[in-house]
């Protein structure tokens, strides 16, 4: 599916519109009127799963939605029932990771602070494979086939940087990431040279935070995804979604206040980091001096 048509995002757009249309009515009151359970109303407004377009039509007709909004909402409902390419990798990606990839598939921009590893969108295949090999040492029960499908999914994600409409990617990378071994010297050198090359793309802004730079706050890695208007469907813009990954989970943070705080922190990190040109020079220097 094209980047402009993620079912994950379409479900969220539709859910936001349904919550807005319900207004001050309680979910229970609406449910009683249309003959649904309150749980079904909650499911429709959660954006986590899709309902058949015919059922969405019944709900928006109750709300008295007129054209052209009615047609746009039914279009969203139809799009929301689609299947994203990432769902073919459900055996290798957790439900939270699938949600993340689905959001990324239609995001306009992604701001990333990476304190531990090279961002997934910028990893080489060898880097990914060595990360997974290290993971299998700790969790040896992961089948090789699942590992291979994880690698395939990671490589597929990277098309967002080159397929139109391209993702606007801004990364602040801690210098320590380039010094932390993943694989042998060849893997690390190739990874760093790949970073330098990708950083020249017009839609990629890559900055390195040197080890000697002081920052006022400290936190783990996170990603801030932003979304544009409703594209062909005409739906309203979605709010930012912040994703922070842990060992066993992927936390999604939403809400204007919380996501704004993450934006402020990202801006502080970006201001403290080297500009893109000097960052690229440092990346190449480390590739030669440390991983030669």
Question: Which CATH class of the largest domain is shown?
Answer: Alpha Beta
The overall strand count is 6
First-last Cα distance: 41 Å
How many independent structural domains? 2
Question: Biggest sheet, strands in spatial order?
Answer: 3-2-1-4-5-6
Percent of residues in helices: 40-55%
CATH topology of the largest domain: Endonuclease, Chain A
At CATH level 2, the architecture of the largest domain is 2-Layer Sandwich
- Judged by helices, strands and strand pairing, the structural class is alpha/beta
Stretches where pLDDT is under 50 for at least 5 consecutive residues are 231-235
Strand content: 5-15%
Q: In DSSP terms, counting alpha (H) and pi (I) runs of 4 or more, how many helices?
A: 12
Mean pLDDT: 92
- Label the overall shape: elongated
What is the element string, with H for helices and E for strands? HHHHHHEHHEHHEEEEHH
- Cα gyration radius (Å): 21 Å
Main sheet, how many strands, which sense, barrel?
6 strands, mixed
InterPro entries: Cro/C1-type_HTH, DUF5753
Domain HTH cro/C1-type: 17-70
Organism: Trebonia kvetii
Protein name: XRE family transcriptional regulator
